[in-house]
Amino acid sequence: MPAEIRSMTPRVTEGSADAGTVAWTRAMSAAFLSPRLEPEQLARVGAGFEGQRLRGAYVDPDPAPVATLRSWDAELTVPGGTVTADAITGIGVRSTRRRRGLARRLIAEDLAAAVRAGAPAAVLTSTQGSLYEHFGFGLATRMSGITVDTARARFRDPDPRGAVEIVDRPDLALVLARPVHDRARRRHPGALARTPQQWDAVLSGAGPWNGLEPDRMRQVAVWRDDDGEPAGYLVHRVEEGWHPTGAATLGVVDLQAVTPTAYTELWRHLCTQDLVGTVRWGHASVDEPLPWLLADHRAVTDDGGKAMLWLRVLDVPALLAARRYPIEDAIVLEVADDAGFTPGRWRLDTHDRLAPAVAPTLDEPDVVLPVTSLGSLVLGGVDPRVLARTGRLEEASAGAAGRLARLLAAPSVPWNGTPF
Length: 420
What we know:
alpha+beta; 31% strand
């Protein structure tokens, strides 16, 4: 029997989700090899999806879907502004139903609904490499895994400033951390506003993978300036205890700072704790300034970076007009899109720096590119000249890739520190 695609919005009563959401949550958890949870745990997990969109492929009379997808509206930072993006996650298929096009159908329906709703872009993170290029997504941000040898991490400025405060209560930690994150994320193209469920997972460690039990090894620290104002926070956990070797390993879960001093002092707090020999952060930006704070750069090593956020352009003029540009120019882009959402030829004119204009045109193109390449370029994290050298972008007029590189340059390296 063919599967039927259905969508629903969770109904939540007294902190528990309805039966349909529970069945959807059980199917999603199984697809991601999560531990089997009791019905009441699943109801609590599903309650965290309140206000979001759940899609599933159903084969009657089974009340649980054989494939799942979850999405919601998230504020995405673009250079100089923000847009509302369709954030997609939870794409999973039952092991007995793989390779039947179910994920493709779910993604296609979700993207089509996002277009109807007026979302200029969709975003997701993926462990499947370039799988989502087939759906028009382009790799837009990368992340780096860094490791610090605390024995070698001597800070160039030896004098601590401000004060670090340990916050044991998750509710208080949220009150202090959320405003810092809201300011910090607006500095990084590719950053997203967090849902309540994401905040709970970051601060307490409670999630569907552990039955919503808090992580007892997790700690939250807030840095305050001399006036007592919070300007940075970090969440870390003990990954390896000090008992076997005398030197523990700390894992950074989240680190956000809105001033250089806050950033420095949070790292000083991490690297100068007793019994700590190593600090690791798997979701750092590829341009972390930490090595430049230390007397010896070699105290910090990184894994070379890996893929993080993938972006799918759904409305070319809306997305390009939402961001700001560092120079005045006008360039014509011809965009190819097999799905039919965004094909066309567009003139981007940035002579009005506060209100860039994007309009359809019949002029000859300067640059010809697929929508996947535009998704990689729009946040400013990829040089168009690199894509031109690899055949992912065609220069239809001389020097156009360089002009586009200067136009799309971002004020900071794109980074999304919130996996989803």
